[in-house]
Amino acid sequence: MKQPVLSEWLLTQLSQSRFPARMPNHRRVYEAIRRAITEQVLPSGCRLPSTRSLATDLGMSRNTVLTAFDQLLDEGYVAARTGSGTYVAYNQPDEFSKNPNVIHSLNPEGNIIGLSRRGLIASSTQNNHPSDHSSNHPSNHEVQPFTPGADDYSKFPFELWRRLLNRQWRMLDPALLDSSHDGGYLPLRQSIADYLRVSRAVNLKVDQVLITSGTQQSIDLCARLLTDHNDCVWVENPCYWAARRVLEANGLQLHPVAVDNEGMAPTTQDFRVKPRLIYTTPSHQYPKGMVMSYGRRRLLLDYAQNQGAWIIEDDYDSEFRFEGRPISSLQGMDQDGRVLYLGTFSKVMYPGIRLGYMVIPPQLVAPFKNGLYELQRPGQVMIQAALADFIEEGHFASHIRRMRQTYGERRRLLQAALAPVANAGARLSPVDSGLHLVVEFDSNVDDIRVAEMAAEKGLRVYALSNYCVGAKQEKGLIIGYAYAATEHITHYGNILANVIQESLRKQALA
Amino acid sequence: MKQPVLSEWLLTQLSQSRFPARMPNHRRVYEAIRRAITEQVLPSGCRLPSTRSLATDLGMSRNTVLTAFDQLLDEGYVAARTGSGTYVAYNQPDEFSKNPNVIHSLNPEGNIIGLSRRGLIASSTQNNHPSDHSSNHPSNHEVQPFTPGADDYSKFPFELWRRLLNRQWRMLDPALLDSSHDGGYLPLRQSIADYLRVSRAVNLKVDQVLITSGTQQSIDLCARLLTDHNDCVWVENPCYWAARRVLEANGLQLHPVAVDNEGMAPTTQDFRVKPRLIYTTPSHQYPKGMVMSYGRRRLLLDYAQNQGAWIIEDDYDSEFRFEGRPISSLQGMDQDGRVLYLGTFSKVMYPGIRLGYMVIPPQLVAPFKNGLYELQRPGQVMIQAALADFIEEGHFASHIRRMRQTYGERRRLLQAALAPVANAGARLSPVDSGLHLVVEFDSNVDDIRVAEMAAEKGLRVYALSNYCVGAKQEKGLIIGYAYAATEHITHYGNILANVIQESLRKQALA
């Protein structure tokens, strides 16, 4: 590497690397050069530029560069030869120099050889993910207005949260530093029990509450403890794709059950395919949004009790209901201990908190506590303690109230902006809760194409057909409004309404 | 419930409940009474004692109790009738009053009906766990001197750690609040890469490092992405029981391979049982402690490459090596990209941090990043950022140095105290690293009985036979010294040495 090139490379490194905020410049220069040496960008024996010229190139004081060089000298990464400058002296052990050949062998289906069948399903970005049309794009995880599942956590009271966390760390209860053996931090489980009793009519004693690191882990634990390989699981169709992936990764056979306006609607034929597990979203069907009727709830509960099947009730966003009375949970109607109720804090707090909870039937408490510990080794009890304070001191309830207002307003604005799509034959579904809207199309519409056209305008929405299990019969768009700023939602909503109308008209003409 | 009894009950609740430290007394009283009402300890219509008599019974000011009552009145849990006191007014919705019958039905094997076969294995406290002899005891998770796997984190610089965490929360980079899509926080992955290159001769680029929530999750991810149901996995015999449990929970067939003093020692017969995965602890065999020889390493690597098998190298405690040169990793010798290297921070930092890492072959990076996100939804990036600072600022290295000294001293003291067991025919294994010692017995000794006798003296040690897969051929004790305080280790070590000698002599006479 020539010397001007090294300066260029270092400048890029220094601007790109995410060094800790308070790291002094000399340390950054040291780190960047050290990495260049260990990663053999600068091979052994190569001469470094003079400190003076490097300082000029980097726009730093010569002292800064000298300090970095001194440290490199001290640690033996470089050596100084009198009169001829500084050289890379780092001798990597023999094993280091042999770089494994990067193997890019693909099998005929284009998959990397070596993954298992279930591994291919679990690790694919191509299968089942509703953003299929953009999954090869590097910005797959970049959030844009209307991305379903992206929540707005900018309004979360982080300063208060920081103080609660910091207080726990000051008190330093040693019990909070260990991994969690007993289903989670007891006061948090008590707070959750109180909250669920009052807000969701869940019928429980505190011992039935287990803290997990989120809904994904909760579903996984249910699948692992309650089912065996090749068992059948009923899922709603369309269905929450992430749940589907975990169930499939556990070797389960998915049996899709269609939904109608009363929720999951099993037919006589469905009843013949006996499930070990039933995965359902009764308060707010995901993604279509309807509430399961009382009759359907009784039907499911009775069937589960008859068959000895278990029901997973995923109550993923019931905090955000904008009209009408809160709906009771399915769990609250269950008299036979067949329902496992799941909830999450990631939507109300912030996604990275990774805390969720399960309410399990009394007879499963002991094995679930053990299974949770053995399979997932939960910890982060400090954060559980701060969350217990956050709830007990009333901040959780007031944050939900605030966000319910914010999200409710965004929903009204988006509904208004999307109203014109009715002119092109699309139907805005009458959902009164949750964090997304559904626009439904006729079954001959290519909804993936509509989503692609929205993506071209910088709007990420998901095609409803990608949520279907088996035949892609339902067509439409899933449109999240939680992340879009209130002041921009009408603007983007109008653009989206135009895209939908234009795309539907083009498809009708074609 | 009569009134004196209510005071008793409240006093018990107030002393047992783990309320947040700064919660005022009136709030505690309010919470305890509210729970008594919602959990129907106090049924609807029941009369509460007067505030004056309750205040006397609880040893609190009357004002405190009045404030609690006022809040209960405000929220409608109780109602005041003029002249006749305060009554429970809370009417639970209909669903609440029906309590699910607690089902304690057991099948003929004594298992709760409803768990799956794999669920029974994963959630059992009876199978495979080395502390079998005490697993029914409520103190199963209580740490005592010599408990293997329990580390001493009292010397961890928590005040410094709190400040690093608090600093990250003050800076509040929004990227650290989301779940982690891309294998973990990049600067932490860089720090780990630097550390592993230098300390463990691991051959890697930073992109190969993924952050997980611990070794249990790392093994789980490997099993899910690289194996299918009923595939064969080689494990060492004896073997780390927690790894074994995760592998079994994934439906894998365990094939035990005996270890000798060069580590895992596959025979011609073993080679016929072709594995998809090989799980090994080459730097420090768990639990016996030997280092895998160079020849054995080459053999395993060549066999894996020939068979297209994957090797999991679990380098669980290589930070704590007390004599001789550090041993290179198996991964550093791998030229074909067949080794997945696992490490953890839970032993060096504190168990509840739940952070571990994997180094995976380059060709697996993309599917593993996706699989990690889809199956485990990692988050807690704030803690990853604080840990990156902790390492970059040199605290990690100096903490390891300190703990290495501490643990090394404990090990020497324990070895000295246990030396007399040789008189009874036991052998102290010559291990020079790790956090436990192994005392080996002749194969006719009942090592579970020896462990039970130690438990009677308040010392938890594990029987070696419980680590065996299949026939329990190896006998001995696993004795952790990480948790025992240096000043007590000789005292407890002498007691243990006496127990061992006494037990072996008794068994020889019987």
Q: Give me the secondary-structure category of chain A.
A: alpha/beta
Strand content of chain A: 5-15%
Number of extended strands of chain A: 14
Instruction: Please state the second-level CATH architecture of the largest domain in chain A.
Output: 3-Layer(aba) Sandwich
CATH superfamily of the largest domain in chain A: Type I PLP-dependent aspartate aminotransferase-like (Major domain)
Mean pLDDT across all amino acids of chain A: 85
Q: Report the end-to-end length of chain A measured between terminal Cα atoms.
A: 57 Å
Secondary structure: helix percent of chain A: 40-55%
Q: Can you tell me the CATH class of the largest domain in chain A?
A: Alpha Beta
Shape of chain A: globular
Largest sheet of chain A: 8 strands, mixed
Give the spatial strand order of the biggest sheet of chain A.
Answer: 3-10-9-8-7-4-5-6
Number of helices of chain A: 17
Assembly state of the chains shown: homodimer
Provide the gyration radius of chain A in Å. Answer: 28 Å
CATH topology label of the largest domain in chain A? Aspartate Aminotransferase, domain 2
